[in-house]
Amino acid sequence: MQKVAGQFVFSPSDLNHFVECEHLVQLQLTRDPRVMPLVRDPHAVLLAAKGLEHETAWLKRFREKGRHVVAIDGLPGDRDWESDAERTIAAMRAGADLIYQGVLIEDGWHGISDFLVRTDTPCPAFGGWSYEAWDTKLARHSKPYFVLQLCFYSAQLERLQGRAPGRMHVMLGTGELDHFRYADFAAYYRAVQRRFFDALRSGKPPYPYP
Could you read off the pLDDT of 24-42 as tens digits, one per residue? Predict the structure, then answer.
């Protein structure tokens, strides 16, 4: 959860935090980053580096298979979200085999998918192809919050394509792939999002011990 130009901007991670602890929303809304800066511990830094290594290995694997890759490059904290989202849509319209770090935004939400992979399933917006979201994770097994994050990307793809993606994919740290049907989780994703907005509007105080 970030504040940009006086307005809160949300990401799929905020939904995952909300599912873990609903009161965390109010804590984040009232937190003053100047007083309580978020500090990443060395273990988190190491995990982030290993995660990037895993992601880059999959990117190399896709390229070695001859996939046409369009990378939506941008530095963390220094993205032009509107411009990068337009570049992502342009790559989808052009039929890129794979879009790396695709930016998806809508009404105060933004997210960056590891990979958007072209399929041969037609859709109204692009014609003879459409896209599905793939995400890299270091874990040995898929976890519920992986799926919730992928649901955000899939919902955005549905809006842009005019057709819901058939599946979502997790690229595990073991090198294995897990596949999920978006339709099996879409209703749950929408319900969590509604509860999230209800919590934002409620103004309930957080726990007495933040």
Answer: 666 666 665 544 455 567 7
